[in-house]
């Protein structure tokens, strides 16, 4: 193995990622190695890792290789695997553009949540087709300390609980995952969004992400919030035949989410690469154990 492994660092509305290009899927990125890379003191630091692999070289993505050459093997900061990462898809696309794997315009990438279509402007925002939301039936409750709120269960490929609160400060320090019930609603854990109104079709949120803690933004979370807010507001594009757009402010910036009458959701926001460097392979090998 070479003694140096290339990496880049990027973010989308301050949801930040260590990008590890590994076209032939040669690296052994164990959960411990991912957690070490994401460690903000002893590692590089990030909410998660975007492992960049050719779809044809990854057992989970081979079936998508005809549609999308590149697979976003996303990992949470604690090393766990998640089905989807919305901000990650934008940053992943920006990386592919930067190194010349794709040109600006329309591209496709493979994710565990299926193939995602992305529109990549040269320097501007990136738009991702996020697919449809699923809204499983059943009451869900989330709590922080002594307070509890009813939450809407929204699945964007990954699970979300969306709670409307009076003030985002009610979410507290979010150092631990907010407890939820019933446990059966989310057998694999959940991302929890706390939401307040900011104006017509404009909300703000904070999020505690499964596997990463409180982050400055969550793209799938913002989509879940837009859909939950639309239904609360009595807006359903499938019924009215008219697209609905919400602006979702996150601590790290702003995302714009549109739900179309066919249920397809589009998310638009920034994606920035901030640095490139080399990882010491020996350090990573030790961290991987
Ligand atoms: N930050 C991401 C979501 C990442 C996955 C999530 N923590 C999970 O475990 O489902 C986003 O932008 O969507």
Question: Could you walk me through the main structural features you see in this protein, from its secondary elements to its overall organization?
Answer:
Substrate binds at residues 15, 76, 86-87, 158, 191, 209-210, 219-220. Its EC number is 5.1.1.7. It comes from Streptomyces bungoensis. Strands 5, 6, 7, 8, 9, 10, 11, 12, 13, 14, 15, 16 and 17 form a 13-stranded mixed β-sheet that branches. Helices cover 16% and strands 42% of the residues. The protein has two domains: 4-125 and 271-288, Roll (Diaminopimelate Epimerase, Chain A, domain 1); 140-269, Diaminopimelate Epimerase, Chain A, domain 1, CATH 3.10.310. The chain has helices at residues 31-38, 86-98, 219-232, 237-240, 281-288, and strands at 4-12, 15-21, 48-54, 70-76, 105-111, 114-120, 126-132, 140-144, 147-155, 159-164, 180-181, 191-199, 202-209, 213-215, 244-250, 253-259, 264-269, 272-280. It has 289 residues and is α+β, with helices and mostly antiparallel strands. Strand 2, helix 1 (31-38) and strand 3 form a beta-alpha-beta unit. The ligand N[C@@H](CCC[C@H](N)C(=O)O)C(=O)O is lined by residues 15, 76, 82, 85-88, 158, 191, 209-212, 215, 218-221. The ligand N[C@@H](CCC[C@H](N)C(=O)O)C(=O)O binds at residues 15, 76, 82, 85-88, 158, 191, 209-212, 215, 218-221.
CATH architecture of the largest domain: Roll
The share of residues in extended strands comes to 35-45%
The class by helix and strand makeup works out as alpha+beta
Mean of residue pLDDT?
A: 97
Q: Please indicate the count of domains.
A: 2
